[in-house]
Design goal:
It contains four helices and no strands. It has a single domain, classed as MazG-like (Helix Hairpins), CATH 1.10.287. It is an all-alpha fold. Helix 2 runs antiparallel to helix 3. The chain starts with a helix and ends in a 17-residue tail after the last helix. The protein binds zinc ion.
């Protein structure tokens, strides 16, 4: 499944509910899911990390859909040819 197909599944599954809740509340849900992912990483719980990564991607897809942004297009535009700064794969930027 491509990123665009995933975004479409999430949109068809939750769009009306997410739209009614509103973009800012949905954005808070997204941040909460990121926090849950951080907790799973802290605990070293691999299964929970998998679930939370899926939730983070689903909520990111929701935010993209509500903003009428094609997540696959923007991700590929920015990272499809490697690092957006040095344009290399792997990145050759000096370490931050
Ligand atoms: Zn780079």
């Amino acid at each position: 499944m491509k990123i665009s197909e995933f975004q479409d599944v999430i949109r068809r599954t939750y769009h009306e509910r997410d739209r009614a809740r509103g973009f800012e509340k949905d954005a808070l849900w997204f941040v909460e899911e990121v926090g849950e992912l951080a907790e799973a990483i802290r605990k070293g719980d691999r299964r929970e990390m998998e679930l939370e990564m899926a939730d983070v991607l689903a909520w990111l897809s929701t935010l993209a859909s509500l903003a009428d942004i094609d997540l696959e297009r923007v991700a590929v535009d920015r990272y499809g040819s490697g690092c957006p700064r040095c344009h290399s794969i792997p990145c050759r930027c000096p370490h931050a």
